[in-house]
Amino acid sequence: MSASKQSENFGKWKSPITAEMIASKSISFNDIHMDQGILYWCESRPEDKGRNVIVSSDENQKYTDETSSEFNVGTSVHGYGGGAFYIKKQMLYFADMKTGLVYQKNISNQKIKAIVEPGEYRYADFCSDPEHKFLYCIRKDDTGKNQFPTTEIVRIFIENKKVEVLLTGADFYSNVTISPNGKKISWLQWDHPNMPWDATELWLADISEDGSLINNKNLSEEKKQSYYQPTWSHDSQLFVSSDKTGYWNIYQYSDKKFINLYERNVDFGRPMWITGTRCFEFLSANEIICCYSENGIWKTGTLRLDNKVFTEHNNSLTCIYNIVAENNRVAFIGGNPTLAPAIIISNKNNLNSIEILRNSIDKSIENEFISLPELIKFQTRDLKKAYAFYYPPKNPLYCPKENELPPLIVKVHGGPTANADYMLTPKIQYYTSRGYAYVEVNYRGSTGYGREYRDQLKGKWGIIDVEDCIDCALYLCELKKADKDKLIISGSSSGGFTVLSSLAFHNVYKCGSCTYGIADLIAMTEHIHKFEAYYDQGLLGGSVQDTREIYFNRSPINSAHKIKSPVIFFHGDKDPVVHVSQTYKIADALNKNNIYNETFIFKEEGHGFRNAENIVISLTKELDFYSKVL
């Protein structure tokens, strides 16, 4: 095939990977559960305006939509949702995004009924008692229409729709879970100004005969730490992940102390942006199946409780979002460099082997067009280490012109306490198959590298993230992997803030793409939602009242006159996290300074685009923009 390759400039290659293919033939997954041999998951479908549907698959891999078109499964608890459905003993429970109601579906007879009365509430993170009389969950109370609504733990009387508040007073709750013997309840809670990856509290209480909670006890140790995913063993022993060593490791709580089951500098946990994520489950009474991040790459292992022997399983997965287990079956939401997020099953008898149940995209991307990522470890300007995933241009039909280097898209992930994933991402292939190099930077502050790495961004947001991205880009230029005169920076949400900061305070990039990004940090605090209400203080080193000068100086809007590179903007007009006014303000400032920009505001879209038509527009317009300005 090499003899027939066409010589063409980078960025001008024609590709079979189209925007329509990515938008209309892709779905995304979130929650996953297993019950009596049946696997259930929730998927979002762009062709149906992003509607979330619960799907099941039996042992014969027969798919069934368990929720009809009248429902959109989801919740707004904690702002970003998650944990919107639960199933036990063939009783499926789910929250409807539109009405806020919780429904029960009897899988046996297919009957569906609401189990709460209509009201200004939102529910998430469900579990039930062994007798299946109650559904325990987190509830957000919007009755007061407050900017910071009350969050509480409630139990729903399944038969009569009564809802009883069990716990209130903390700013946030999550992971309410009942022991298999029905005698104990555990949960996490935390208060402002902490984010759940900064510090959470692990609580335990007894459930009395009348159902009330007694002997409530905070199990948290004195050292500030983030607890993650309290889980009960088959014999009602409590296990939890904690990062007190600097990494999320798995502990057993026994005899009033925490026992580290397997100490290692890897993360058996992830930041709780959404509820309901899991990184370990009991495969049997004596064995835990788990996933963990080592230098940003996820792996799978099992841990025996009797001898503490840990076994790694080479199942090819490098990114795992969620894991469930029942009897001998294990299921993941995960992927790898040639597999976009998928629903995957495995068997206890051969955990090195996986079977794909459902792909997030069809098999339209042929392997010969897939650019494989290279793990990049680079030195920052202050002599620290940072990480990235680099994707070279790849298209079997083309070769570059002699001595030409490719344009490089530097992608900044959001959060900023999040991370770039080591797996197949169709949008990346959309660009690499057209002759662009692409790098996703896990700058300092990203997760998957331990707490110390995550905390380096504190007080330095808008500085370290910006510098790490620039240092990564210039390092790749030194390696002759990118053209220094054709560097592009792209990001969304907080990543958009890094984009605008990079363009305002440095002269490195030829152009930028900003999707629902933050331009004005002071204005951001006026529209902020409860979950992130104090997040900015940790990232910027103080409140806007006490450190207003920092907020002002680091806001790109106040240095918009320094931006000399073209920018393309995308935003949803119903974004509850970053108000659309942020994009209007910075675009207007660029217009006044005669800096070329393009702005696209999508109606009825929020923080992340769900409608296939809008996804196509954003992809095609962004590509056209790069072609114009490079």
Description:
With 630 residues, the chain is of the alpha+beta class. Among the domains are: 278 residues, 3-Layer(aba) Sandwich (Rossmann fold); 86 residues. It contains ten helices and 38 strands. The longest helix has 18 residues. The model has no long low-confidence stretch (mean pLDDT 95).
What's the total helix number?
A: 10
CATH architecture heading of the domain at 6-20 and 367-629? 3-Layer(aba) Sandwich
State the fourth-level CATH superfamily of the domain at 6-20 and 367-629: Alpha/Beta hydrolase fold, catalytic domain
Summarize the amount of helix as a percent range: 10-25%
How many strands? 38
Tell me, briefly, the overall form. globular
CATH fold-type name of the domain at 6-20 and 367-629? Rossmann fold
What about the largest sheet?
8 strands, mixed
β content, as a range? 35-45%
Mean pLDDT: 95
- Give the spatial strand order of the biggest sheet: 30-31-34-33-35-36-37-38
Instruction: Supply Rg.
Output: 24 Å
* Oligomerization status of the protein chains: single chain
Instruction: Note the gap between the termini.
Output: 30 Å
Give the structural class: alpha+beta
The CATH class label of the domain at 6-20 and 367-629 is: Alpha Beta
| Poorly predicted segments | none
List the helices and strands and how they pair.
Layout: E1 6-7, H1 19-24, E2 28-35, E3 38-45, E4 51-57, E5 63-65, E6 85-88, E7 91-95, E8 102-106, E9 112-114, E10 121-128, E11 134-141, E12 150-157, E13 163-167, E14 172-178, E15 184-190, E16 201-207, E17 213-218, E18 227-232, E19 238-242, E20 249-254, E21 257-260, E22 280-284, E23 287-294, E24 297-304, E25 310-313, E26 319-326, E27 329-336, E28 339-347, E29 350-359, E30 374-379, E31 385-391, E32 398-399, E33 408-412, H2 426-432, E34 437-442, H3 451-455, H4 464-478, E35 487-492, H5 494-505, E36 511-515, H6 521-527, H7 535-540, H8 548-554, E37 567-572, H9 581-592, E38 597-602, H10 612-629
Helix pairs in contact: 4-5
GO biological process, one term: proteolysis
GO molecular function: serine-type peptidase activity
InterPro entries: 6-blade_b-propeller_TolB-like, AB_hydrolase_fold, Peptidase_S9_cat, Xaa-Pro_dipeptidyl-ppase/CocE
